[in-house]
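To assess whether the prediction recovers the assembly geometry, we first specified each molecular entity separately, as shown.
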Amino acid sequence: MNQPMIRVRDLRKSFPARRVLDGVSFDVSQGEAFVIIGGSGSGKSVTLKCILGLMKPDAGEIMIDGMAIRPADTGLMARFGMLFQGGALFDSLAVWENVAFRQIHTGAMTRREARDSACETLGLVGLGEDVADLLPAELSGGMMKRVALARAISTRPDIVFLDEPTTGLDPIMADVINDLIVQVSRRLGITTISITHDMASARKIADRIAMLHDGRLVWQGSAADIDRSGSDHVDQFINGRAEGPISMSVLRP
Amino acid sequence: MNPLASIGATFLAFLAGTGRLVLFAALGLASCVTPPWQFRNIGRQIIDIGYYSLPVVGLTAIFTGMVLALQSYTGFSRFEAEGAIAGIVVLSVTRELGPVLAGLMVAGRVGAAMAAEIGTMRVTEQIDALMTLQASPRRYLVAPRLIAATLTLPVLVLVADIIGVMGGYLVSIHKLGFNPSVYLANTIDILEPIDVISGLVKAAVFGFLVALTGCYHGWHSRRGAQGVGQATTLAVVSGSILILTFNYVVTEIFFSR
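The predicted structure of the complete assembly is given in tokenized form:
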């Protein structure tokens, strides 16, 4: 059997107030689009940050191509791209400088070359050269997500992480972003790990879906099988029902 | 709660905070002295800290010099010691008031802005984004600010010294009726290089402290607008207290006999 590109085993992470991850394990193959779904506070972002090396897990193993990751490993970061939930674009830099930040910062390109490269990448996400000199504050929500996606793929990384890629967008723009993610990742042969609670997005971009609840993966399988998962947790979540095994801590009237 | 336990907990929290600040300063300094340096960011910070602080520091200095001359005259004329006013003004401005007031003004303007900017970057995940883009946030954000503030504040203080002495001169000549050439001669006679140098060393120390507290509180900002607001307030308060504390320490080093 082929070695998975990303291998996560028994990942555990606690904060003083509560346990967030309680033994999360999954594999992601090269070129696969893996989506983790789950409610707010289920540990999705923490899982992503642990894999990225932005957060140190209490226990567990994370391996990329058979190599254990170390926190803030810049060599490994060269293989990653990340789309943050709010974009996390640098306010003081123009759009093209955001997109080509890594190339400029590492000295891989001159500023002129980096600008050309950024414009080319902006083209991949459907943005013209006219936005290259704008500041992030001048962009709409949808454009900001596209720029953030462009930045994530600008160095053609092996693995791209997507944190709630459609949050804050209207349904049509969300679908446009989903289409872009699918197109770009297939075209560039990128492996993606996304976290979302938007089921329309998960169905569109995922090859495989896993559901995280209370720090554990309660189900994982093919995206095509999610409607017949046999898991009450998944059924409740994908149908958006208040009643079921997932109880939200809200005051009932 | 037991009052002694409360005092102990507060003291332990203070020690832990001091330890974190010292560690942050050490890591920041390490980023300052090792390549690669972010020359573009350093240049941008020098303009922001130095050039844009000139009006506020200049205004503070000129009015301080003017008030100093006026107040000294009120007191010294009682003892017919008006001749000492030029010396009082120049020594007070170069040794103490220039660096301390410039430091406090920069702490209010620049330290707060640094805390707000870095705090916002923290809560909007821009600092995480830097790490995913192979950039060390300390090297990219903290080191340029520390370097720029340490280099720029002495220049600002030198300008403040000149403007402050000029303020005293203007009041002494045009309001108090001093002879211009005698006033200038008194000013130059009493001034020694150590007076200016000690002020400039203080300014470098204050610049470092302002940038350090601004970056530190922004870096450790909690989530939300309230967290960033609190970081800004803490940056100004702790920066100002450290300036006043280290003003005594540097004065003691230079002038204790």
